[in-house]
Amino acid sequence: MMTAARADSGLVGPGELDRYPYAEAPVAGRVGAHAWESADPELGRVGRRTAGSRGRGLHGQLVQQLGQMIVSGDLGADRPLVPEEIGQRFEVSRTVVRESLRVLEAKGLVSARPNVGTRVRPVSDWNLLDPDIIEWRAFGPQRDDQRRELSELRWTIEPLAARLAAGHGRDDIQQRLADMVEIMGHAMAQGDVLTFSRADTEFHALLIQVAGNRMLEHLSGIVSAALHVSGGPVTGCDRPNDASLALHGRIVDGLAAGDGAAAETAMRQLLTIHPEVERVVPAPREH
Q1: 89 and 153 in one domain?
Q2: Which residues cross the membrane (predicted)?
Q3: At what angle do helices 143-168 and 220-228 cross, to 10 degrees?
Q4: Which of 42, 123, 154, 264 is 20 to 30 A from 72 via CA?
């Protein structure tokens, strides 16, 4: 459980601007959990338990909890976020609340302005390419849209990366890609889905990094997030089998031969959607 909110003072020095004012008030006058009745009353307790099981500290837990509540719509656009209420609701100190709100502001989820306070921003302002927001959307009410969008984005990014990588390949990275395919083969033979998934994620991240395009390289985290939250539309990466493994191998062969067209074709086949397959929504990834 999160520790109780401290009543300490002096966290902001004289004359220093506190962007997230944490108003001091007598205990009797403070607003309790009833101010959050628009959200699921169980969400706070469940969120703390889930976040704690993922090994995050208080700061990470609160970012996770508030982020999920905003993305799910429990805290709608333009909703004021009062730091004191948050601290009491989740039993954390003003420092934890303040730093958590700063993280959420960097993700575009909230804004803090003088004389206005901290408010939830509309979806149009969110950084939808942020891996945390991708995850929160993928396991919330927007899961179908998020997974469709991720599949479409991968279809755009990865075949191009495979073509470019054939012309910018480095022997050490190509060997690493081949090693990942070998690891995936051993994992599949042993029924080790976790090892297969990890090797698959590294394979796709490496492929983008070796493409020689720094802007594409910045998108490697998005592809990794997409693989972690895979579901909905099904690709060859979601179905470990001989055909999937062979296509990964063909990509490596295309890179080694400098054949960008072959590598691109193999990647498109790997990312082919199989709409007839229904997937069960997996649990959020571990950190």
Answers
A1: no
A2: none
A3: 130
A4: 154
| Count of Cβ atoms closer than 10 Å to residue 172 Cβ | 9
Of 75, 97, 125, the residue at which a domain comes to its end is: 125
SS3 label, residue 17? coil
> Could you tell me the residue range of the domain that residue 251 belongs to?
131-273
Residue 113, both tokens: 């302005």
Name the nearest CA neighbour of 182 among 202, 211, 208, 158. 202
pLDDT digits (tens, 9 = 90+) for 96-106: 999 999 999 99
Which CATH number is 204's domain given? 1.20.120.530
Kindly report the pTM of this predicted structure.
0.64
Mention every residue, 6+ apart, whose C-beta is less than 8 A from residue 100.
59, 62, 63, 66
* Structure-token pair, residue 122: 């509309």
Residue 128 φ then ψ, to 5°: -70, -10
**Which positions ≥6 away from 238 have C-beta within 8 Å?**
230, 231, 279
Report if residue 176 sits inside a domain.
Answer: yes
Same domain, 211 and 171: yes
Rounded to the nearest angstrom, the gap between the alpha carbon of residue 203 and the centroid of all alpha carbons in its chain is 19
pLDDT tens digit sequence for 164-195: 999 776 788 889 999 999 999 999 999 998 89
